[in-house]
């Protein structure tokens, strides 16, 4: 029993020493981690750094009220309200800042006026009852305004205003009990608040402004284009892999799909709310149809949702007849192209006319696949059973893509997108690709040619793609 | 030309009169609409009304500082900070209120201490440079803290604290330039803030407290149970309709599915963040595994997402072989039962052991369906093609339900759910129903009995359900 004890002691000592030695390095490692995260945040969106500098600048500017004797003599201790306003009101986007300024300004004015009225009423009611009457007023308005904050519309846009209303009403009405010069004080405060708010607005709008509307516009476009990329590249890889070699599938695009599904809803709604406060800027008018972006966003999410089950099938080695694979691949790649055209139309604010032929192709491809499956079902059954889930996802997706197309068309009418000058180069190479694909299919299975014969009523433009 | 003009004039007059007459009724109608909405909000969750009354009570209580002479003499104009604290800090849930109180309190203390230190440094640097040094400090801290607010973790839990830090640091350090009794002033403010915050906390916790953790717990359970109901009832209706008469499908459950998909994510994350601030209460310990609820919520959303395409098939009249319909119906109803058992386990905080047999049944049903489809595919092809999309959705869903089961099991281990005292009555009637269903199938198609023979290795419990 002596041996183990002896050898244990030094181990404990060594462990203790190691633990002790690591103490300074642990917080250092953490600090390094934080620094790395900070650099990533700044690289990811440099506007964050600019925003921080803008806040610093504005706070320092407003502090001048304290440093400069003549200004301070006029405003006194109320000057602190200017600093307060800046810190509380300065938001990342112009819309956020304007919204908070308006909320704060209007709520302060309205609440102060009402509170002075309430004070007057209380004085009229007689000296003794004054505190009770004012207490009653304060109670009633606090209850009412707290309840109004639960209204969904108020919560989305005027929550801050309601808070300031309760605050100002309470402060002004109870101050009236003690300070007789309440109006003079309120004046000084109001002036400082206006100074703070206007400095804020000036810095926010004039120096590298961040427009929530522009962010929303880009974000919705980016999501559609990500979905399009996913469809084009990812599905391509998926089919290549089953026919060619085992190519490593790039996982990032799947996680992109997930981020569209999960995070976009809240972000889009916030941005649309903020964008509503913004004046016209750049290509956007004052009443740009921001709500329509939410509709497009919802449809994009729906489409991503319908694509989600596809992940499960990607890992299985698909062994379906070549011509069915071809049709499915065609539909996916057409969807991808449609979505990318739509995203491009949103981005450049041009009419999405170039997406229309893709949508037509898509409908044709989807119909063709259905016909093919019905006629081809006499083939190897287990293979067809394997491919059917993907075909189902595809059919769902096609209707989703069509809906997105309609919604973008509506947007282009509402926001008066400009017409595009034609470019037809991109399309040609794709047609060649699809034709190849069909020729392989035609050679292999006769039922396909029957399916094609059934569709002779289609226009020449569509027939190329059948 | 005289005739129409004559008849037009009175029309304009009448229209004008009608428009004029409607003026008072329009705002009245709007007011009535708002009142109706308010009543609905209060009925929907009476805690909203109680919260509003609590806010009113607390604001009025704190206003007493102004009414009572001895209190006012001690605190002076700083008493307004108490009102301010109450209005800004009082949140709907206990977690929100505690979080804001801690954020406000700690940030104020830290910022005030640092600002006093900065002031001291500035004084040491010599009288002339003082404003510049302080201006530099204010600038640096405002930039740094504004940037720190972009860190996702900080944004989720400490955003308000960061705001208060910037505010307090700026106010205290620039006040130091003017007011020599800055420490005395800070003391009075701190006391009033503590008074405001403690009144807030007392009212919030002692009178009808709203626990964010409890809300999260119930909400996650409710979503799972809604999904279970949707599966059981809705799918039942769907198949009844195709075989029996055209029964009206109740749409509300589809919209429930949508609300799970769209709104739950943000709400769950907010509640989990708030729940993190709450002390132990009722059945929940201080460190209840709130994060696990987020995981369960994510899986529930995934399951709802996979079910979403089913809506498109509900409107088509399904005409598949009876025994396949039976299998699918069985799988959906088993999933429904599993989910409802899991929801019940969460709700009552008991171990979800009663869900396990359902999960086993579910796996069996899913396997059986696959076998059946493979063997039964020689039947009427167009019918099978019609049923396959639903079968695909079902397979996806089964794996989702299994994952939810695993996650709930994990939760029950982490949160030490109590074991359940057995109840076996519910299950029996279901077995009878399923048996019926199988007997119909058995009579019609021989391939099913082969499928069943293949599975003789299952336990007796499972065989009843095959």
Question: What would you note in describing this structure?
Answer:
- The structure is a homodimer of 466-residue chains.
- Chain A is mainly α and 466 residues long.
- Chain A has 20 helices and no strands.
- In chain A, helix 3 runs antiparallel to helix 10, helix 12 packs antiparallel against helix 13 and helix 18 crosses helix 19.
- The longest helix of chain A has 34 residues.
- At the A-B interface, helix 2, helix 3, helix 5, helix 7 and helix 9 of A face helix 2, helix 3, helix 5, helix 7 and helix 9 of B.
Could you give the topology of this structure?
The structure is a homodimer of 466-residue chains.
Chain A: H1 2-22, H2 25-44, H3 47-67, H4 69-75, H5 79-89, H6 94-124, H7 130-148, H8 152-157, H9 159-175, H10 182-206, H11 212-243, H12 252-275, H13 290-307, H14 310-314, H15 322-348, H16 355-376, H17 381-414, H18 425-444, H19 446-453, H20 460-463
Helix pairs in contact in A: 3-5, 3-10, 5-10, 6-7, 6-9, 6-10, 7-9, 11-12, 11-13, 11-15, 12-13, 13-17, 15-16, 15-17, 15-18, 16-17, 16-19, 18-19
Name its key features.
mainly alpha, disordered C terminus, disordered N terminus, homodimer, 466 residues, 20 helices
Uncertain segments of chain A are: 1-5, 242-253, 422-466
Assembly level: homodimer
Give the overall shape of chain A. Answer: extended
* Count, helices of chain A: 20
């Amino acid at each position: 029993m002596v041996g183990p004890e002896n050898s244990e002691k030094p181990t404990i000592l060594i462990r203790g020493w190691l633990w002790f030695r690591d103490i300074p390095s642990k917080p250092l490692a953490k600090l390094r981690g934080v620094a790395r995260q900070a650099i990533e945040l700044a690289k990811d969106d440099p506007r964050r750094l600019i925003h921080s500098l803008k806040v610093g600048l504005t706070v320092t500017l407003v502090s001048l009220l304290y440093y400069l004797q003549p200004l301070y003599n006029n405003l006194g201790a109320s000057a602190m309200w200017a600093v307060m306003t800046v810190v509380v009101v300065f938001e990342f986007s112009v819309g956020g800042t304007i919204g908070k300024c308006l909320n704060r300004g209007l709520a302060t004015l309205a609440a102060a006026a009402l509170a002075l009225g309430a004070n007057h009423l209380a004085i009229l009611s007689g000296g003794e009852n004054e505190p009770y009457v004012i207490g009653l007023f304060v109670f009633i308005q606090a209850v009412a305004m707290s309840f109004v904050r639960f209204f969904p519309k108020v919560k989305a846009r005027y929550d801050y205003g309601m808070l300031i209303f309760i605050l100002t009403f309470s402060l002004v009405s109870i101050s009236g009990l003690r300070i007789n010069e309440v109006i003079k004080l309120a004046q000084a405060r109001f002036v400082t608040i206006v100074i703070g708010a206007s400095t804020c607005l000036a810095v926010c709008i004039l120096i590298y402004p961040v427009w929530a509307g522009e962010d929303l516009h880009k974000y919705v476009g980016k999501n559609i284009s990500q979905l399009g990329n996913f469809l084009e590249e990812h599905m391509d890889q998926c089919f290549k892999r089953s026919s060619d070699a085992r190519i490593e599938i790039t996982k990032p695009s799947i996680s992109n799909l997930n981020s569209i599904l999960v995070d976009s809803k809240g972000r889009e709604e916030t941005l649309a709310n903020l964008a509503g406060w913004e004046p016209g800027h750049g290509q956007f008018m004052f009443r740009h149809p921001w709500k329509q972006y939410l509709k497009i966003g919802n449809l994009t999410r729906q489409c991503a949702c319908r694509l989600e089950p596809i992940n499960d099938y990607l890992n299985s080695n698909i062994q379906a007849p070549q011509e069915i694979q071809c049709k499915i691949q065609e539909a996916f790649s057409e969807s991808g192209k449609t979505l990318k055209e739509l995203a491009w139309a949103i981005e450049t604010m041009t009419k999405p006319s170039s997406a229309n032929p893709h949508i037509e192709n898509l409908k044709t491809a989807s119909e063709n696949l259905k016909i093919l499956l019905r006629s081809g079902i006499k083939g190897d059954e287990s293979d067809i059973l394997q491919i059917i889930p993907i075909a189902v996802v595809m059919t769902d997706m096609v209707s989703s893509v069509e809906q997105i197309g309609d919604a973008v068309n509506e947007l282009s009418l509402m926001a008066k997108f400009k017409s595009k000058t034609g470019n037809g180069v991109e399309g040609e190479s794709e047609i060649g690709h699809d034709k190849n694909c069909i020729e392989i299919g035609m050679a292999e299975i006769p039922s396909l040619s029957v399916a094609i014969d059934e569709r002779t009523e289609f226009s020449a433009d569509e027939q190329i793609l059948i």
